[in-house]
Amino acid sequence: MRTKIVVFVAVVAAALAAAAPAFAHEEINPKQFPTGTPTFFTLTAANEQKVDLIKVTLTAPKGVDFGATTRSPQGWTANASDTVITWTGGAVKPDQFENWGYEIDSADQPGTLTYKVTLGYADGKSDDVNVNVTAVAAGTATTVAGNGGAAVTTAPGATTATTAAAKSGAGSSARSRANIALVLGIIAIVASLIALGLAASRRRAAMPAAGGQKQDW
């Protein structure tokens, strides 16, 4: 019986792991910005490998070139063109993250822009991740992370920036969803174990006592 319970728990755990949503650990903020406005962005990337992250390459969406300025963490150097920025010279240790900055002069049309992020590691391997941001028409009401879901109107000429509160709100929301999923998974496992235990108890109660006569059902 114990073997069956162990196998069942393993199956449930595997199913929960497969069903859990995948959260990308690379993001670009702000996630929404107005068209026709120079905008500064922050790229955040986490190192989930066992070796140092030593190279970050960012490729611009077609038709939206990079601006003239970049921001590099201490020890890193940026080599930038209109369409590609490559940061090298530094290192992000395993299980840590870092921020890099860049700008665009503007996006002419509203829509989704996909940036390609290539992470290069000390062992020669690399990972490609696509990160989306959204350009919205200036003067359009948009939802800003960390603003309680309220609509914010982007006015022409307004400066776009991601505040610490917005980042904190977005991060708290993601953590809350992950915690809720974990709690629900634990509850499901506990409920399943209780059900198995009750079923086993009923079967034992239904069995005739040792040395006794078989009941006539």
Polypeptide structure, described:
- This protein is of the alpha+beta class and 217 residues long.
- The protein has a domain at 24-144: Uncharacterised protein YcnI-like PF07987, DUF1775 (Immunoglobulin-like).
- Helices cover 28% and strands 35% of the residues.
- It is built from two helices and twelve strands, in the order αββββββββββββα.
- The model is unreliable at 4-24 and 144-173 (pLDDT under 50).
> So what's the CATH class of the domain at 24-144?
Mainly Beta
Mean pLDDT: 76
SSE order, as H and E? Answer: HEEEEEEEEEEEEH
- Helix/strand-derived class? alpha+beta
Biggest sheet layout: 6 strands, mixed
Helix content: 25-40%
Radius of gyration: 26 Å
Q: What is the molecular shape? A: elongated
Q: Separation of termini?
A: 26 Å
How many DSSP-defined strands?
Answer: 12
The number of distinct helices, counting runs of at least 4 residues, comes to 2
CATH superfamily of the domain at 24-144: Uncharacterised protein YcnI-like PF07987, DUF1775
Low-confidence stretches: 4-24, 144-173
As for the CATH topology of the domain at 24-144, it is: Immunoglobulin-like
In CATH terms, what is the architecture of the domain at 24-144?
Sandwich
Across the major sheet, the strand order is: 2-10-9-4-7-6
Query: Per DSSP, what share of the residues sits in E-state strands of 2 or more residues?
Result: 35-45%
